[in-house]
Amino acid sequence: xxxxxxxxxxxxxxxxxxxxxxxxxxxxxxxxxxxxxxxxxxxxxxxxxxxxxxxxxxxxxxxxxxxxxxxxxxxxxxxxxxxxxxxxxxxxxxxxxxxxxxxxxxxxxxxxxxxxxxxxxxxxxxxxxxxxxxxxxxxxxxxxxxxxxxxxxxxxxxxxxxxxxxxxxxxxxxxxxxxxxxxxxxxxxx
Length: 190
Description:
alpha/beta; about 10% strand; DNA-binding; DNA integration; Recombinase_CS; DNA strand exchange activity
């Protein structure tokens, strides 16, 4: 029987260390982590690896339910798959496990409440943005990456990988910035 920890954050600039420390403190011998959205299971290779290798009696441990997923159906499907492999799921905050019948019920309710809460937050955010736009104060989110710096490095004949390392982002973000600049200006202006 193994305790296998799973840590996840949604973006590359978020930190996994707090989750990993909690999972180690809970005695997880194996911890898999990834930086990918929890909106769906697509692209979550580490979680898929854990599920594939679960044996009867193993326990998948996460710090919070939303680390498994943001959609109630996905979370319930994951819990069901673990159950099919005769493995358990434990959430540390609040502490709930599928080792008993009540654990399944509590996890189902928590998943539904979390999904409903996310919908309310998005709705309030959308309403706030619309109100701010109406009075002319909404300017959108701040750019996290210095687009001018990316353009300068591109003009210095640096490749996308080098630029990504220099400004602290992914290559894909560099490609998007380059594409946006190419669309808004002529290639010679870069």
